[in-house]
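Practice problem: predict the structure.
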Amino acid sequence: MRIGNTEIRPLGGGLGCLLMILFSILASVVLTVLLNLVL
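Answer:
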């Protein structure tokens, strides 16, 4: 993935990129549920 002149390489290649995206989605869902339980 390139942004301007700098190339960004996710850890572990494509699989690592997918895992990071999945992890961020899961983390946001879990945080939202926790916030709803607390509030």
